[in-house]
Amino acid sequence: MRKPFIAANWKMNKTSSETREFISGFVPAVKDVTDVDIVLAPPFTSLAIASENLKNTNVLLAAQDIFYEEKGAYTGEVSPLMLIDIGCKYVIIGHSERRQYFNDTDEVVNKKIIAAKKAGLGVIFCIGESLAERDAGKTFEVLQREIINGLKGIDEKDIVVAYEPLWAIGTGKTATPEQAQEAHAYIRERLGILYGNNADEIRILYGGSVTPENMNSLMVCNDVDGALVGGASLKVESFIKIVTFRGEQ
Ligand code: PEP
Q1: Is the pTM above the cut of 0.85?
Q2: 10 Å Cβ neighbour count for 166?
Q3: Residue 143: which CATH number?
Q4: Domain that residue 154 falls in
């Protein structure tokens, strides 16, 4: 039985004081949720305040990115040890916005995952196809390439995969439960080639315009084990509703 995993990706949103305010409304409302792993990924500048305010709660902290070197002359970058030191348990790696705007190639993604795991961080590994790739019938091909290259030489421990079709991110256009299940089943099959039966334990999240309204219909899919949520995680009420989804048909 895979425990649902629901993570908020705030992207470049919220100052430190907005982060504190969110947490003060959110944490008490979800304090009794024991059957979901709940994760917040604020921007780097809010990690310290979030870490302080999430201490002794059931909400875990994640960063939105990482650099793969341990330290040195890499202006603007943040190392795995810095994230551990500030209280992060997870890091998002390979988000499509990083791939698209910051040249995070499959090779870079792979190096980042290796570095994160070496430091003891769990990884939320993002993959997904563009609309053009889907329309060209290349969805599985893209997923296969991203999985093979991204997870090269990496064991499955503490890896969470997020399937995020680019055409659904921030567009208000969610994948249908059928589309999500089809992609997730394919991803699990590919993970099975790498990890055998252990692939059954890997959480595969759906991401792309998740809302309180569509969360339940996605979560009833066999291979959808949670969500990576952007826009709808920025409001306390809406993220509470997502985290407390019903989980039934
Ligand atoms: C994301 O960027 O990870 C995401 C899923 O965004 P949104 O929920 O806003 O589509």
Answers
A1: yes
A2: 20
A3: 3.20.20.70
A4: 5-248
